[in-house]
Each structure stands twice: as structure tokens, then as C-alpha cells.
Amino acid sequence: MPSAETTPAGVREPEPVRPTRDDEVAAAGSELIGGPIGRRALLGTSWWTPLRVVVIVAVGMFALGMVQKLPCYDSGWFFGASTQYTHACYSDIPHLYQGRGFADGLVPYFDKLPGDMDYLEYPVLTGVFMEVAAWLTPGSGSIMLQEQVYWFVNAGMLMLCAAVIAVCVVRTHRRRPWDGLLVALAPAFALTATINWDLLAVALTAAAMLMWSRSRPLAFGVLLGLATAAKLYPVFLLGPLFLLCWRAGKWREFFIATGGAVAAWLVVNLPVMIFAFDGWSKFYTFSQSRGVDFGSFWLIWAQNTTTPPSTDFVNTAATVLVLLCFLGIAALALTAPRRPRFAQLAFLVVAAFILTNKVYSPQYVLWLVPLAVLARPKWRDFLIWQACEVAYFLGIWMYLAYTTSGDAHKGLPTDGYHWAIAVHLLGTLYLCGMVVRDTLMPERDVVRRTGEDDPSGGVLDGAEDVFVLGAATRPPRHADHFDGPQVEWGSRSSEGGSL
């Protein structure tokens, strides 16, 4: 039976879940650092609280990721195209400092760029992030020095985003703070963090998830709207939220969240839409017009046929495929024997978009890492998936090294790169399969195994179903499946399913 501590108000709070006790892989790995975690760390009587440990580890791993880019920082970004690929240290950031007009003081979306790319092809909030970094970059010295400093400034700002993500994941599942170590130690997270600016949207999405877990739908909506203003994928989280609120009858909270998201997105985008529509729309038109690109199964098809699919066909087919996936997720949400957790469906919808999209840049793994941890905090499955993503990370750079090294052909040929894509796809599908299994067999869900319902679900946590399709049954109350004491966290009773 889990032990509990008594608060000053006399309420017994459940002890945090120990991964080294409940997860065999975590227990085995802990032997490298002295064995399973002790009770003092669990109860916060030591300075080394879970939050501090996770943030320190996350920053440390981020710093190691920066060190991994050192060969490119010294010369690889500037001398010889293949060097940045053979050392797997490529980053868009220094190249776009001059390539997107920041070095010349051009204003994103308002000033046209020289060359084929007439406007900046990023969402508005990401463009603001890039511009702020440009303001902090001294305009003196050689262009090489300016690009180095620009990357370093961006890396510092992105490190803050990584720390925010770690904090949010630790605090979203309050009984499982040590799950944040999965984010902090994720190798693909460290390797891809400074390739592009995706961490801004990931941090805002993680903060939105935290706000929803605290039953603050307006704050959730505002943060999700800001995240969508930085990257498109966060808007997909409204789909699972709609389905779960439908099943639980929580319409008021859903409409508050949606209204907050729309308002926040408009506040960021509307001024640019009005005064620089052509520049604002570049992100959307570019996404539609770009052809089949790296990392997708569409590329395998295109490179293994004499009649590759057209861009219009791929756009239509990819849209149909992702909509079919969304319909399958909707059926799962409304027919599962127990209402799925919000994080589970959030992970599935983003993964579906990634798997069917016509491009998969290596940094897109950042979108999934926090959601994967909240959806299935199982070390074995998470590390299997991460191994697949690291294999793809190495595969794409070795393939680009092969294509840019001329007759030397240093790197991975096309067939080898196709296998790397397949490994990425299979790894993501494997983790999706585990999450789907947890929703259909909730007794296998490691989060619910400790007696909780939906710790990231906010008002959905412990709520009764009011609409269910098929033969699904009402979710059991905690008292029906929890072998520990009846507890209360904060002002919400354990009978309602809260933490």
C-alpha cells in the first residue's frame, strides 16, 4: 500500500510514484548513479527535489547537445557543405541569419527577401523569436562571427524553453514528477534542440497542458493559441479535447479553452495579416507548395518509382490519410471502455500528423517528446522509440553527406536512408500502438495503475461519462480500483478522481 504524508490541514497526500520501484528499466539504470531513489528525495526533505533534479539534468543535456554542434560552430557551417553532415551538427539557425535578411536588418513579413524566398516562411510568433535573437546579436564583425553569435543567442533562448518544458512535465502529473527525467534525458531531444526554433512551440504547448491539468481552461487556451502562432501542430490538441469534453459533458470548459486559443492566435497574427498579408501568408502557401521532402514515406515512394506522385496528389492524399487517422482516434475516444486520458489522445493526434505528413524534419521529434512522456511514461518503450529517432537523426545527415560529397560518396546511400526513414516510422508506430493498447486495456496503463484517472485532464479527471458510443462502460471510481488509502489533494476529493 502506498505510503502518504500528512499535510498541515490533516489531509493525507499520496507519496510520489518511484520509477525505480515501479519500472524495471528505470531500476536497472539507477544502479549507474547509486541505486534506487531514497525517501528523502521523494518527500522533498532534501534540496534535491524532483523538479530541481529534472531541470538541472535537462539543462545539462541541452548543453551537451550544444557541445555536439561544436565542429559546425568552429567551421562546419561555413566551409564545405558536407562537413556539417558528416559531423551530424547541422542547424538552420546560422544559415537563416543572413538567408532570411536578419543580418541586413530586414523586418520579417514586411520586407521582401532577395532570391527565391520572397518572405520569411515561419509562423508569426516564431518570426518574433528570431527577430528578438537578431536584436541581441551585435551587427559588427564578420558575417561568420555574427552567425556564430546568432546561433549562440538562439541556443540560450531555446535552453530557457527546454527548462520550461521540464518544469511543466514535472508538474503536470503531480504524483509522477520523476517522469520528467524522460524528457530531460531524451537523446533525440538534446540532439535536435538547436536545429530550428521548434522548442518555442513545444514549451508553450507543455505550459498549456500544465494549465489544463490545473483546471484552468482559459489559460490553457491562451497558451495553446500562442503555441499555434509559433507552429501549426498545437491546434490539433483541440480535437482530442473536444471529444473528451463531449464524452464527459464539459462543454463550458471546452468553449472557454477554444475561445482563449482563438483570441490569443488573433492577437499575434491579426496585425501582420492586416498590414503585411503576403508576408503573413507565406508560411501557409509554402507548406502547400513544397514537394515531397525528407523523412516521409512519400519520399520512399517518390524515389522508388519512375513516376513520382505530384505535389497536389500528395497534399490531397496526406490530408485524407490524416483525417482517417483522426476519425480512428475519435472512435477510440468515444468507444473505449474507459475514457482515454487527454495526454494519450494528444500524443496520438500529433503522431498521426507526423506519420502522414509529406516532410519529417529531425527536430519534429521535439513535438512528441513531452506528449509521449505524459501519455506513456514507461522507460522501455520510450527508449525504444528514442533509439529509432536517434537512428533517423544520424541517417538523414549521413544521406545528405552522401549526396553532397560528390564522387567520394561519403555517407549513406539512398536505400540506406530509406531504411532510416522506416525505422523512424516503425518506432513512432510502436509507441502509438502501446498508447492505443493502454486506452483499450486501462489496467495496463502505468499512470492509472496507481489509482489515478487522468492527472493531466483537469476537469475531466474523475468526471462521469454522459455520452458513450457502443458498449463502453462508465469509468470506475478510484475507490473501485485503488489499493491505497482514500486521499485528497488540495480541495478536490479522491472520490472525484483527482490527485
Note down, in words, how this protein is organized:
Belongs to the glycosyltransferase 87 family. It is a multi-pass membrane protein. This protein is mainly α and 499 residues long. It has one domain. It is 60% helix and 2% strand. The protein is built from 23 helices and 4 strands. The protein has helices at residues 19-22, 24-30, 39-42, 50-68, 70-76, 83-86, 92-99, 124-135, 143-172, 180-185, 187-192, 198-213, 217-230, 238-248, 251-275, 277-289, 297-302, 311-335, 342-356, 365-375, 379-404, 414-440, 478-481, and strands at residues 4-6, 12-14, 488-489, 492-493. The strands form 2 sheets. A two-stranded antiparallel sheet has the order 1-2. Strands 3-4 form a two-stranded antiparallel sheet. Strand 1 (4-6) and strand 2 form a beta hairpin. 49% of the residues are buried. Residues 1-12 and 472-499 have low confidence and may be disordered.
Spell the H/E element sequence: EEHHHHHHHHHHHHHHHHHHHHHHHEE
> How much helix is in the residues?
55-70%
Point out poorly predicted stretches: 1-12, 472-499
**Number of separate helices:** 23
As laid out across the biggest beta sheet, the strand order is: 1-2
Query: How can the largest sheet be summarized?
Result: 2 strands, antiparallel
Overall geometry: globular
Q: Calculate the terminal CA-CA distance, rounded to whole Å.
A: 16 Å
Tally of distinct domains: 1
Tell me, rounded to a whole number, the average pLDDT. Answer: 87
**Strand segment count:** 4
**Proportion of residues in β-strands:** under 5%
Radius of gyration: 23 Å
Would you tell me the structural class of the helices and strands? Answer: mainly alpha
Protein name: Membrane protein
Subcellular location: Cell membrane
Pfam families: GT87
Family: Belongs to the glycosyltransferase 87 family.
